[in-house]
Amino acid sequence: MVRATSKRRGASQIPVPDPHYLSPKSYLPPQRRQAILDLVVQRGQVDVADLSELFGVSRVTIRKDLDHLAGQNLITRSRGGAGSALNQSIEASFYVRALQNREQKSRIARAALSLLVPGETIILDAGTTVVELSNRISNAAELTIVTPALNIATQLGSLPGVELYILGGRLDPDTISNVGPIAEMQLQDVRAHKVFLGVHVIDPQGDLADPIREHACLKRAMVRAARQVILLADSSKWGVRSAKAKVVALSACQTVITDTGLDDRHRRAMEAEGIEVIVT
Questions:
Q1: Predicted local confidence at residue 35, as pLDDT
Q2: Does domain 101-279 fall into CATH 3.40.50.1360?
């Protein structure tokens, strides 16, 4: 694992900066960059002057934000602004998926944030709903974070209250994360309090499943490395047959956070297994 170090600051609790309910002028830099990227995906083109007014920061700051996103091949820089890189980088497809069921993912992430405890070691999986959670982690989090996700690492690695470790391996551009046996091996030495797990689907048999075997294997390694498994999954994930590789049975999760669209029969089945179900 690669360690991203930063100077810690004392904190008694984790603030809850919610980019969907705060004024844009109150955003932290990672929240502002995510919001800028969302605007680029939605509009196709953004202007430095407009962004400066929206977020209440200087044009120099906005240009630095755009350069940061362009450096990750998530946008393309243009004269006075930026445009979409959807036709130039497969990475941008991640952010298109992030816009799907965005409100449900936002509510799930807010509920997950309340489960963070200062001083804990947590694993953050790669995935759009887990990224929603990472968007809300602030300077005062006082957490040790292990993740294979490069976008999460870039976002959180510089926060003074976070000690971050990046799992190695082969870069999967579709999830912007490292996968493979190197990452799985490194997790053998990790003892985490919690893992916040994303999932491709939950099949009709009640198994977490993924279409790519490497992803499924890495998720299993995360589950083994954590005392508590917290699944973040919107209701559209249930009952889908498209994935081929089993991750774990749903019963391996201690907590599931989902949205109000979940069918009651799925909720009752999980509760019968002793799973805590948090519906947002």
A1: 83
A2: yes
Query: pLDDT tens digits, residue range 127-150?
Result: 889 999 998 998 767 899 999 998
User: Counting Cβ atoms within 10 Å, is residue 263 exposed (0-12), middle (13-18) or buried (19+)?
Assistant: exposed
Residue 115 is classified by DSSP as T
Q: Please tell me the predicted confidence (pLDDT) of residue 154.
A: 84
Q: What is the pLDDT of residues 29-63, one digit of tens each?
A: 887 887 888 788 667 789 999 999 999 999 999 99
Instruction: Identify whether the C-beta of residue 179 lies closer than 8 Å to the C-beta of residue 148.
Output: yes
Residue 199, CB-side half-sphere exposure with 13 Å CA sphere: 36
With contact defined as beta carbons under 8 Å apart, do 135 and 116 qualify? no
DSSP string, 217-272: HHHHHHHHHEEEEEEE--GGGBT-----EEEEEGGG-SEEEE-TTS-HHHHHHHHH
With contact defined as beta carbons under 8 Å apart, do 148 and 166 qualify?
yes
- Contact indicator for 269, 251 with CB cutoff of 8 Å: no
CATH 3.20.20.80 fits 24-96, yes or no: no
Sign of CA dihedral 115, 119, 124, 129: positive
Residue whose tokens read 């009752």: 268
Strand order in 207-210's β-sheet? 201-202, 207-210, 245-249
Q: What ranges do the domains of the chain cover?
A: 24-96, 101-279
Phi, psi dihedral angles at 48 (to 5 degrees): -60, -45
* Lookup result for tokens 């909720």: 267
User: Beta strand 162-166 with 207-210: parallel, antiparallel or unpaired?
Assistant: unpaired
Q: Residue 16: pLDDT band by 50, 70, 90 thresholds? A: very low
